[in-house]
Design goal:
44% strand; disordered N terminus; 7-stranded antiparallel β-sheet; mainly beta; single chain; 517 residues; 35 strands; 6 helices
């Protein structure tokens, strides 16, 4: 583990930073439980070394005991499925698939993997979410799933069936997707303890994160249900795909897992990123046998995130039911896409609340933050600073919440760690070209800087000084400007700061435009 500097100090993490989750399990009175000793580590050193090596490698799918069935097919929502049927009983040992499409990112969401065991469909999931890569092809390797650089996706979950199994790929959209599907299986002795494999998925599309009163005080967070299972089985993991729309952390919420109807969760976490094995909102790519972050682009910037945790060593057993909730707590008020995938095994007769979600899976995925939050001026002629189409040549795009400031939407866009000469371009959209009176609402404070202003590359103000001895706000009039229909750009260029200022921060609450008649 590397000791890293806090995100709040504005330094991007130079390496991995992991949390270690320590769980315990209670047993019925009278159960025989062997006490752990350090001598056991020495005694079993060879076994431990061998296990660690095996966990770093994937199972071999090709072999004399494995059966292989393949099928290639170009599919749309009108052209049927790519479908493989296995009969006679056995167990899936691996599923490999590859997609080819003009829009591969969209295909990862709108192509669905469906698996039916003995007439009971227990797997329905977009392929990108099933394989942990989400809506962006991000190569990585874990013990149960891998994604290669040539876009081959492989899973190694063992999936028994008694008589018959059907595996199919279905495209929910009209765009043609070429699919290559290969299924590996082997013999399996079915008995009274054999369980069916299940996978559930859903997306909370354009989910509003809420207005928070304080990061350390009262907040309007809520619990999101990942899955509810009824029956007897084992919960074996989950993955999550996020699209974040502002420069702030999305995952403060804690996991809460209720077993067999308990009123208080026996698993109660400390934060979503802690649950997925890392800390401090770390955006770095990492891969390990049971945890991975194939993509952390949107950790505390607008963008895509894919996290996964497989419970190969810490599966959660349940006799009657399991409820997995994740507290939804974003540090800013915005809209995000939030899609959890869950994995489990249950004895025949087990039920889940996760059902096919065609309406969610067919929607256009978010590729840019303005796919979810608008940078068009509203009916009052205002556009939020944090929702503008922002690009910076240096420093960090962030979003800030200070309840006492009463910023519009509760937050502001803040530009941090920039230097003299750095530029921030902020795009906003007007429906009609013409002359407009343009104003900006800036934050002023002892650590705020001085900058020039341009609009559509034309100089507007040679210098704006936002230094002030106290934290406050000021409105800056940019004058009467010619704006074009569509997207226009407000450009801020860092200058030498006020000699009294201790930093060169820039904070924009909102911009307003008013048509000049």
């Amino acid at each position: 583990m590397k000791l890293l500097v806090s995100l709040q100090q504005g330094i991007v993490h130079p390496g991995e930073n992991f949390f270690y989750s320590v769980n315990y399990r209670t047993y019925d009175k009278g159960s025989i439980v062997k006490t752990f000793t350090l001598d056991d580590l020495k005694k079993e050193a060879d076994v431990l070394d061998g296990t660690q090596r095996e966990l770093m490698e994937q199972p071999i799918l090709e072999g004399k005991y494995q059966k292989k069935v393949s099928g290639d097919k170009a599919i749309t929502n009108l052209s049927g499925e790519n479908r493989i049927v296995l009969e006679g009983g056995g167990a899936i040992r691996g599923i490999q698939l590859k997609l080819s499409a003009d829009d591969l990112a969209q295909a990862l969401r709108s192509v669905i993997l469906r698996i039916t065991f003995d007439g009971n469909q227990t797997v329905w999931c977009p392929v990108g979410d099933f394989y942990g890569t989400g809506n962006r092809l991000s190569p990585y390797s874990s013990f149960y799933t891998t994604v290669s650089k040539d876009s081959m996706m492989t899973c190694y979950w063992v999936m028994p069936y008694k008589d018959k199994c059907e595996i199919s790929l279905e495209n929910l959209r009209t765009e043609v997707v070429s699919t290559s599907l290969t299924v590996y299986s082997s013999d399996w002795e079915w008995n009274e303890r054999t369980m069916y494999f299940g996978v559930g998925w859903m997306e909370y599309h354009r989910k509003y994160t809420g207005l928070h009163k304080s990061i350390n005080g009262t907040l309007d967070a809520e619990d999101i249900n990942f899955v509810t299972l009824t029956g007897q089985g084992v919960y074996v993991g989950d993955a999550i795909t996020i699209f974040n729309t502002v420069g702030d952390w999305w995952g403060e919420g804690d996991e809460k897992v209720y077993i067999d109807g308990e009123s208080f969760p026996s698993h109660f976490g400390t934060g979503t990123e802690d649950y997925y094995g890392y800390a401090w909102c770390m955006p770095n790519f990492f891969e390990h046998p049971f945890i991975a972050q194939p993509d952390g682009t949107g950790a505390y910037q607008p963008g895509h995130v894919a996290n996964l945790r497989y419970r190969g060593l810490d599966g959660i057993t349940f006799k009657k039911s399991l409820v997995f909730d994740m507290e939804f707590w974003h540090q800013s008020a915005t809209y995000v896409n939030y899609a959890p995938t869950t994995y489990w095994y249950m004895l025949p007769g087990g039920k889940t609340n996760r059902k096919p979600e065609e309406k969610m899976a067919v929607i256009d995925i978010a590729k840019h933050k303005n796919d979810l939050v608008s940078n068009s001026v509203d009916k009052n002629g205002k556009v939020e600073g944090e929702f503008m189409n922002i690009s910076v040549t240096g420093g960090m795009e962030r979003t800030q919440c200070i309840p006492e400031m009463n910023w519009s939407n509760g937050v502001q866009f803040i530009w941090r760690e920039s230097r003299k000469g750095d530029c921030a371009n902020l795009g906003f959209v007007v429906d009609e070209g013409g002359k407009y009176s343009v104003k900006c609402r800036f934050t002023i404070a002892p650590d705020y800087g001085r900058f020039s202003v341009e609009v559509n590359e034309s100089p507007v103000l040679p210098s704006v000084d936002t230094y002030n001895s106290k934290l406050s706000m000021m409105t800056v009039e940019l004058g009467i400007l010619e704006l074009k229909k569509g997207e226009n750009f407000l450009k801020l260029v860092q200058l030498d700061k006020n000699e009294k200022a201790v930093n060169s921060l820039i904070g924009l609450d909102y911009l307003t435009v008013e048509k000049v008649k």
